[in-house]
Amino acid sequence: MSSNYIPPNIGGRPEGDGSRQAIMRKRRKKRRLVRRLLRLTTALVVICLILVGTAYGYVQYRNSQIHHITVKHLTKPTPGGVENILLIGNNSRCALNGKQSQAFGSCSQVGGARSDVTMLLHLDPAKRSASILSIPRDLFLPIPGTTNENRVDDSLNPTNSSQTSNPSQLVNTIESDLGIPISHFVMLNFDTFQNVVNVLGGVNVYFPTPVKDAYSGLNITAPGCHHLNGTQALALVRARHMYYLQNGTWQYDGTGDIGRITRDHQFLRILASAVARGGLANLPRDNALIGSVLPDLTVDQGFGLTQMASLALTFHGINPNSVPTNTLPALNHYYSGYPGYIYNGGNYGDILMPYEPTDQQAIDAFLGQSDPPGTNVTPQSVTVAVLNGTGTSGQAAQTSSQLQSIGYNVVGTGNSTPVANFSETVVYYKPGEITAAQSVMSHLSGVVAMSQGSTTDGSDVTVVTGSDFSVTGLPSTSGTTSSSSISSATGSSAPAAPSPGTPSGTGPSHNYNSVPGLSSNYSLIVSSHTLPSYDPRACPPGAPITPS
Predict the structure, then answer these.
(1) What are the distances in angstroms from CA 34 to CA 21, 46, 80, 470?
(2) CA 377 distance to own-chain centroid
(3) Which residues contact 156 (CB under 8 A, 6 or more apart)?
(4) 10 Å Cβ neighbour count for 117?
(5) In a 10 Å sphere around its CB, with 0-12 CB exposed, 13-18 middle and 19+ buried, how is residue 463 labelled?
(6) Run of H or E including 56
(7) Can you tell me the distance from the alpha carbon of 248 to that of 114, in angstroms, rounded to the nearest whole number?
(8) Of 380, 260, 376, whose CA–CA distance to 327 is shortest?
(9) Is residue 145 helix, strand or coil?
(10) Angle at 236 between CA 189 and CA 150, to 5 degrees
(11) Helix 190-199 to helix 230-237 angle, to the nearest 10 degrees?
(12) DSSP alpha helices (H): ranges in 105-253?
């Protein structure tokens, strides 16, 4: 008998699980299940590949819309470290259509390109915190690598006198003159701003009083909460010749670019809140926002959509109203009219000048620095030369003597051709010696700037004296420190600088503080805590919309 013989089912016993037929059925069922699982897995893999490919294709498509340019002098952040992003509002009219050109001027009428808005965004992933520092467009700073100076807004204008104007030069100026490392460069134009507001369906802004600006096109005829479209919002953030109605009389705001910066900070909060209300789950709206921004977005070569998305995910939960904003303090000169500020024989129009120590205090607050840079440098390790830049008798000798008394190794003195009737003191430093310059800067007060440039007598740092400054931290016989003032423009002592306003979530206002020791033509602009009564702000909850 064969060993494979299976006896018949005797006695009517039903076939059990051990029968050959049952075993075969189980095997066939298992094979069918395996085939179905394989087909399902294959389908899922294919779907995933399609989705991944689609997502990759979408990212590549959107990334291709961004205008990447080569920007030099950027400081690469450490992984997970803090980043400072330079945000520029380019006022070029060449990208505007016919209707927009009627409102803001055409490319032929308003030539060139200027950094109309210059903001720095400080991001700290570890603290999940952000802060904003605005640099006034008219701030007059040295051009690194040269002995020239220019306004910040002209750094993007290829027609200005420096002949070195481009985004790289602007980055280099901020890093070299203000000591703020820049990780990325981002530039927007008029059209991008309008598109973002329009995609959001407009924004609601509360105006405490009627305001107008004939230059920007702003015209709010009644107080209340107004719904602004992209063009109206642009007219608001560009307003720097604004009038406001008070007691039946139109009053001139008179704060110029500083007032505009205040309004811009406030509007950014309103805009960010409008974006945040939609969350990150409103895919159609988010896609429309991305599509409205990227085609006119210009960024540095290392800033792609992936990096932007990563930053957005890291910081999307931040409350826009909690982000501190500040404006770099500056010394303003009131001109009675034309010709404006004359520098090296050229007319530079209205300008603002840096002022110490208020500038450094604002920068320290922005960067979260407890101690100003350069404080750990030993003065004896720094070689310094001093040049008389005003022609005032004995100015270089007195300054060098004072710096030497602090401990600096003074290696030479001399003269430099005066550049203006009121000029900045400039601390020039050799490449790699910025901390040495910051050390010297920490002992100077008044109209003082620093920049990388040529030095004399083989020194690490060369100080070219200006019209108004003082040397601080001088030793005294009583064992305390003192300051000594030098001024060629007024014949009086340089003032002790008032402290800048602490960055505030409510936005800084524009204060013009008189400066003791300077003529009434000068005032120091610093930030304070509250908005002026006539400036626009966020609409109160539930406020009705006022018909325009």
Answers:
(1) 20, 18, 46, 86
(2) 28
(3) 88, 90, 113, 114, 115, 165, 166, 167, 170
(4) 22
(5) buried
(6) helix 20-65
(7) 37
(8) 260
(9) coil
(10) 55
(11) 130
(12) 167-178, 190-199, 230-237
Q: Evaluate whether 121 touches 84 at the Cβ level (below 8 Å).
A: yes
CB–CB of 487/417 below 8 Å? no
Query: What sign results for the dihedral spanned by CA atoms 536, 537, 540, 543?
Result: positive
CB 223 within 8 A of CB 546: yes
- Burial track 247-282 (b if 16+ CB lie within 10 A, e otherwise): eeeeeebebbbbbbbbbbbbbbbbbeebbeeeeeee
pLDDT, averaged in runs of 10, over the chain (548 residues): 49 55 77 73 62 55 80 90 91 51 48 70 93 92 92 65 64 96 91 86 95 95 96 92 95 87 90 75 70 82 86 84 89 64 88 92 93 90 98 96 97 96 95 97 96 97 95 76 61 42 39 62 67 91 87
Strand partners, 347: 342
Find residue 369's DSSP bridge partners. none
Cβ-in-10-Å burial (0-12, 13-18, 19+) of 513 comes to: middle
Does residue 357 have a cis peptide bond before it, meaning omega lies within 30 degrees of 0? yes
Q: Residue 435: helix, strand or coil by DSSP?
A: helix
Find out whether 52 and 75 touch, Cβ atoms under 8 Å. Answer: no
- Residue 420 burial (CB < 10 Å; 0-12/13-18/19+)? buried
Helix (H) or strand (E) holding 385: strand 383-388
Q: Using an 8 Å Cβ cutoff, are 205 and 239 in contact? A: no
* Distance in angstroms (rounded) separating the CA atoms of residues 172 and 425: 19
